[in-house]
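[job 0412] stage=fold_complex status=start
inputs:
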Amino acid sequence: MEKEMKPIGIKDVAKTAGVSISTVSHVLNGTKPVSDSLRKRVMDAVEELHYEVNMVAKGLKSGRTHNIAVVVNSLTSIFFPPLLQSIQGDADRLGYTVTVFATGGELNKEQELIQMLKSLWIDGIILSSCADTADPANVSYLEELTDLKINGHPIPLICIESELNTRLDAVIVDDVDGIFTAFNHLYDIGRRHIAYIAAPFAYNTGKLRKEGYLASLKKYNLPFNSRLILEGDYTPVSGYECMKTILASGEMIDGLIAGNDQMAIGAMRAAMDKGLKIPEDIAVIGYDDNFPASLIQMSSINIPKEEMGKMALELLMRRIENPNASRMLIRLNGDLVVRNSTVAGTKSTWDLENW
Amino acid sequence: MEKEMKPIGIKDVAKTAGVSISTVSHVLNGTKPVSDSLRKRVMDAVEELHYEVNMVAKGLKSGRTHNIAVVVNSLTSIFFPPLLQSIQGDADRLGYTVTVFATGGELNKEQELIQMLKSLWIDGIILSSCADTADPANVSYLEELTDLKINGHPIPLICIESELNTRLDAVIVDDVDGIFTAFNHLYDIGRRHIAYIAAPFAYNTGKLRKEGYLASLKKYNLPFNSRLILEGDYTPVSGYECMKTILASGEMIDGLIAGNDQMAIGAMRAAMDKGLKIPEDIAVIGYDDNFPASLIQMSSINIPKEEMGKMALELLMRRIENPNASRMLIRLNGDLVVRNSTVAGTKSTWDLENW
DNA sequence: TTGAAAGCGCTAACAC
DNA sequence: GTGTTAGCGCTTTCAA
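[job 0412] stage=fold_complex status=done
writing structure:
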């Protein structure tokens, strides 16, 4: 159809409209009042030439690219897509564009990415960091994050999943409470020998979930048994292996909490391989409530992922508007979802939205 | 730590190094030979000032932003994350950044996005279109895609999943062959009354999969029975409903193929709800082989998603390098994965990588 | 109300 | 081998 080979810019519009380029800019952005007659001429020219703003040039001038970066562990890990989807959808509505990055859970890569982002002039970052905040080696990195600058001006950074420190905005989940909720459920259905296959302790979330388990034991006056708490690595295999170890240890358990759904699924499999009945012999509950949990009818603690994404973006927008806003922390709570892995015969429904 | 509030640019580097800005540019980009002494002074200044290139300015000058857009249906739909992950990972390695967009399967939204992308100056697009190529209303849109321009110069576009026309580069799956492979498997295990719960016919992929089913019947000289082919909408519920309809129709079937895993899972559920045994009474096979299939031990046709992403990016890079390269189509084949839903007692393994 | 002109940070002729 | 300079397309004072 059109055959022009030259980029058409604001100045072409100005020429065919017979006005100055600043006038064009003003009608396009509503920056200054412009007479109706000129405005019309400009709009007509825009139509005629099929003019499109150049966001790059605009960004160079204004310092705002309307692009935000989302840095997560992995784009496939079942937990992040819903988060991303929610962020992307809202950002789109707000006229922002979302660029994604995966760290693969490696701190080196994460740091490299943060470094790289400095040259990109994005307007903000949503980060699910894999940094162990307890590791002294990371303090300078955390310091850098807290005071991240691109070319002199501070760039908004919102943490998700893990609260890196008390100065960065963050959207997190109350993990202690979440595990407590899970424990509570198992206790309610009469279980007293409850094991915990832990999320890795190197992550803050892992530390907190463990804390939740310990706090639960204390609350119910149950004895702590170190053989009933094993550290997994988030994968189903690790859940499988941990469960095998527990079962082989000779300890009798009637309940199991896992630090995420994947490990819980692995653990269920190990139990079933041993001929144990779920939930009769062992009630199993996961954490996160990713959709596979509903597929295999496993109880879990639902983490509101869409809500996390939504809130993270809101915090980011807030800080973009007002860089000096006071620090804000949003702590979300997980809900108990009961299915057949803890209560037999539970009416089964599927989580049909998310795939 | 650092406290400079002014963006530091190439000219600051030039000043502290005591050279001209073009020299700085040349050592940074290796554009022209520069004497070792000056080069060192420049690099030292870069170090000292913590200089970071400004990709926006660079982009404005060069017309290359090193950013590509990936437009898909949904970021949560189990099919895309592996694809995205693969694209993002490779792009990262190549120094490209990936911006994601979701259409929600709505053509309007897709067109709006494409329009919007024109102002972004990305270097290329990978698109999984939801356009029905058979609909005459879409010809002008398809025409536009085929000859997409940003500011006068053509912008590379690679289609994935669906071959929009014979001029656009594309990475697709041989759907006819894929369904045939599934059918073939059911036939091999002795099934002769095979129903098909179809992927929506409005999508090319849906059309082709249906074709695969029909071709299979023909090949094995089996009668076509219109009551054994029902159109689903990709969701598990639709699979559930279709299966219920089939079972209620009085037709006896001993095998079922679904146009994707989700529908297959829904169908399995419907069958089990009726007290039917899988695979004894009905052997069920899905399509795509997303990881939930391995979770519930369902046979499926594995679509190489990572490979698709990888190839799509390769095609995109190829076309960025050489806009006039001849059109290239990559057709990938799916592999049969046999699990318990078609052959009882199959050794079960999990797909542990992808979550 | 409108327009001229000065850059945003960088690249790439073109001179020296 | 090195420096000068003219823009890339746009926003935004500042004058008219």
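[job 0412] summary: Chain A touches chain B through 63 residues (CB under 8 Å).
[job 0412] exit 0
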